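Progress against Task 2.4 (sequence-to-structure conversion) is shown through the following example record, which the project officer requested during the mid-term review.
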Amino acid sequence: MHLAGESIVIVGSGFGGLSTACYLADAGADVTVVEKNEQLGGRASRLEENGFRFDMGPSWYLMPDVFERFFDHFDRTPSDYYGLQQLDPHYRIFFKDGDEVDILPDLERNKVLFESYETGAGEELQRYLDRSEENYGVGMEYFVYTDRARFRDYISWDVAKNARGLNLLGSMQDHVENYFDHPKLQQIMQYTLVFLGGSPNNTPAIYNLMSHVDFNLGVYYPENGLGGVVDGIAQLGEELGVEFVTEYEVTGITGHEGDFLVHGGEESMVADIVVSDADYAHTEQELLPPEARKHDADYWESRTYAPSAFLLYLGVEGDVDELAHHTLVLPENWNEHFDQIFEKPAWPDDPAYYLCVPSKTDDSVAPEGHGNLFVLVPIAPGLPDGDAIRQKYREKILDDIAENTGVELRDRIVFEKQFCVSDFADRYNSMQGTALGLAHTLMQTGPMRPRHRSSKVDGLYFTGSYTTPGIGVPMCLIGGQHTADAVLEDH
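Structure tokens generated for the chain above:
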């Protein structure tokens, strides 16, 4: 299959757009990627100021096998573009009762840790991870790398045979309770749900496969952070012939296959095919004329969105020895925080949050003698986030960090920037200011997510975190291939 001579415009340069661009250019298409903002990467933007450099969005490099598979398609390896350093510990957890644990690259030591909380939990961890590894292998091959975007795609012997034994319907909470009684162990096994934009009670148990990712595949830091990965994929795209245009805000998409106009800037771009990596809801509601939309406003309003976030990017004097590169601070009962995200939206009273300190690993992200960290508090999408509530919450979080990690930051901050719900909406045209996209609830997984193909306009396609397989950098890389495959199949 070849797309020689086809002109394709991709709107948005998140990982989904970058991935789709590489696959389509490799198939011979003439690909142009247009990006609203001043840099490539979508939510994987970088903030560089006063000698500090922050990954503004994703900061965990997980599922290295997915990146290897992506680059291998083009006869390349990730190491052609960036180095990787495995983190040790993978991450640190401060529980708010004063307890502190490190999750390590050494599984045997992790089993000893689990056993210290609950008799038999060490072997239960092994049993849980064996099941997680099995689910990962089956889930990735049959439900992630194979795009099953329609219900009829599930009607096959392969699916029936391999789906047996997978936890497709139960919740993660129910699944984890089958292995561990201790609430802290349950939390350790479930924290990755934040990356999927869900809670233990609304995320399907199939996502226990994330524990295989976490414990067995390792947590890495890429050279120059996730922004370095964006640079690497963009460089690959350029080698394949992709043209990138930044600061080009698309205001409309009209026409049909072979005769599209992508409006924006001073003049419109002409294309045979259009792929949107802009937020799906924004594309349908703001960029397409009414007759070209599959979903109406009520549909988008009724979806369950992944959390937004309150973020503090901080440059500080001195080191922050108490923190690991990835650090989580968890309350004894985090159900209340999840309720305040999904059930009764409100700024959380006793938040669970994440601290990222890349200066622990990378000297280039901060001036000498300084540390670089950001704080991320998951909050409900759509919350009002004016200056007054932000400042009040800033004080609350700085107090909480000092109390629960021993790190007093206030008198040491030399650079600070905040980012919150309205910023996600403004910078990324994000529905309700979600930081991630559609949550992975049971009713928004697999064929329940929006499609890669437009059913209204021939030649219009979608990619990114709203489509299958879903949220997260690795999933968007894979989703880019699914979108490219749909284009190739149709042409």
